[in-house]
Amino acid sequence: MTSLIDVIFLLLLFFMLSSTFTQFSEIQLFGAQAGSKSRKNQSEDVPIFLQLTQDALRLNGQEFNLSRLPAGITSLRGLDVQTVLVSATSDTVTAQRLVDTLVVLATLTDLNVIVLE
Hints:
By secondary structure, the protein is α/β, with parallel strands linked by helices.
Protein backbone atom coordinates (compact mmCIF):
# COMPACT_ATOMS: atom_id res chain seq x y z
CA MET A 1 0.00 0.00 0.00
CA THR A 2 1.32 3.47 -0.94
CA SER A 3 1.57 6.03 1.79
CA LEU A 4 -0.35 9.27 1.51
CA ILE A 5 2.76 11.44 1.48
CA ASP A 6 4.04 9.63 -1.62
CA VAL A 7 0.78 10.32 -3.46
CA ILE A 8 0.83 13.98 -2.41
CA PHE A 9 4.43 14.30 -3.54
CA LEU A 10 3.66 12.76 -6.93
CA LEU A 11 0.67 15.07 -7.42
CA LEU A 12 2.74 18.08 -6.44
CA LEU A 13 5.49 17.05 -8.83
CA PHE A 14 2.99 16.49 -11.64
CA PHE A 15 1.35 19.90 -11.26
CA MET A 16 4.68 21.69 -10.94
CA LEU A 17 6.01 20.12 -14.13
CA SER A 18 2.82 20.50 -16.16
CA SER A 19 2.17 24.16 -15.32
CA THR A 20 3.56 27.08 -17.27
CA PHE A 21 4.69 30.36 -15.85
CA THR A 22 3.64 33.45 -17.74
CA GLN A 23 5.11 36.87 -17.33
CA PHE A 24 2.23 39.32 -17.66
CA SER A 25 4.09 42.62 -17.73
CA GLU A 26 7.44 44.02 -16.90
CA ILE A 27 8.38 47.39 -15.45
CA GLN A 28 11.93 48.60 -15.24
CA LEU A 29 12.66 50.40 -12.00
CA PHE A 30 15.73 52.54 -11.57
CA GLY A 31 17.13 54.07 -8.42
CA ALA A 32 18.05 57.72 -8.13
CA GLN A 33 21.47 58.69 -9.40
CA ALA A 34 23.37 61.09 -7.22
CA GLY A 35 24.94 64.05 -8.96
CA SER A 36 23.54 63.25 -12.39
CA LYS A 37 22.43 66.85 -13.07
CA SER A 38 23.86 70.19 -12.18
CA ARG A 39 21.91 72.60 -10.01
CA LYS A 40 21.34 74.89 -13.03
CA ASN A 41 19.68 72.12 -15.09
CA GLN A 42 17.48 71.04 -12.19
CA SER A 43 15.97 74.49 -11.84
CA GLU A 44 15.05 74.56 -15.55
CA ASP A 45 13.37 71.14 -15.49
CA VAL A 46 9.69 71.71 -14.62
CA PRO A 47 7.98 68.47 -13.58
CA ILE A 48 4.52 67.25 -14.51
CA PHE A 49 2.46 66.26 -11.48
CA LEU A 50 0.30 63.17 -11.86
CA GLN A 51 -2.03 62.49 -8.95
CA LEU A 52 -3.26 58.93 -8.87
CA THR A 53 -6.46 57.94 -7.05
CA GLN A 54 -8.53 54.78 -7.26
CA ASP A 55 -11.01 56.21 -9.76
CA ALA A 56 -9.23 59.20 -11.35
CA LEU A 57 -5.97 60.49 -12.79
CA ARG A 58 -5.14 64.18 -12.55
CA LEU A 59 -2.36 65.52 -14.75
CA ASN A 60 -1.38 68.98 -13.48
CA GLY A 61 -4.88 69.29 -12.00
CA GLN A 62 -6.81 68.17 -15.10
CA GLU A 63 -8.73 64.89 -15.09
CA PHE A 64 -7.53 62.22 -17.55
CA ASN A 65 -8.32 58.59 -18.12
CA LEU A 66 -5.55 56.04 -18.55
CA SER A 67 -5.91 55.77 -22.33
CA ARG A 68 -5.54 59.56 -22.84
CA LEU A 69 -2.59 59.90 -20.48
CA PRO A 70 0.20 59.63 -23.12
CA ALA A 71 -1.43 62.31 -25.28
CA GLY A 72 -1.74 64.62 -22.28
CA ILE A 73 1.89 64.19 -21.32
CA THR A 74 3.02 64.63 -24.92
CA SER A 75 1.16 67.93 -25.16
CA LEU A 76 2.86 69.16 -21.97
CA ARG A 77 6.28 67.94 -23.08
CA GLY A 78 6.42 70.74 -25.63
CA LEU A 79 7.63 72.73 -22.64
CA ASP A 80 10.80 70.55 -22.43
CA VAL A 81 9.47 68.55 -19.51
CA GLN A 82 11.44 65.40 -18.78
CA THR A 83 10.14 64.44 -15.33
CA VAL A 84 6.76 63.09 -14.22
CA LEU A 85 6.08 62.97 -10.49
CA VAL A 86 3.48 60.31 -9.71
CA SER A 87 1.78 60.86 -6.37
CA ALA A 88 -0.41 58.05 -5.05
CA THR A 89 -1.69 59.82 -1.96
CA SER A 90 -4.87 57.86 -1.40
CA ASP A 91 -4.82 54.69 0.70
CA THR A 92 -7.36 53.13 -1.66
CA VAL A 93 -4.95 53.08 -4.62
CA THR A 94 -4.03 49.48 -5.33
CA ALA A 95 -0.64 48.27 -6.46
CA GLN A 96 -2.20 47.07 -9.72
CA ARG A 97 -3.49 50.59 -10.46
CA LEU A 98 0.00 51.99 -9.90
CA VAL A 99 1.57 49.31 -12.11
CA ASP A 100 -0.97 49.95 -14.89
CA THR A 101 -0.09 53.65 -14.80
CA LEU A 102 3.65 52.94 -14.84
CA VAL A 103 3.23 50.60 -17.83
CA VAL A 104 1.51 53.39 -19.77
CA LEU A 105 4.21 55.89 -18.76
CA ALA A 106 6.92 53.45 -19.87
CA THR A 107 5.70 53.74 -23.47
CA LEU A 108 6.89 57.37 -23.58
CA THR A 109 10.54 57.90 -24.45
CA ASP A 110 13.03 60.08 -22.56
CA LEU A 111 10.78 60.46 -19.55
CA ASN A 112 11.91 60.20 -15.93
CA VAL A 113 9.20 58.90 -13.60
CA ILE A 114 9.46 59.49 -9.86
CA VAL A 115 6.89 57.86 -7.57
CA LEU A 116 6.10 59.79 -4.40
CA GLU A 117 4.39 58.41 -1.34
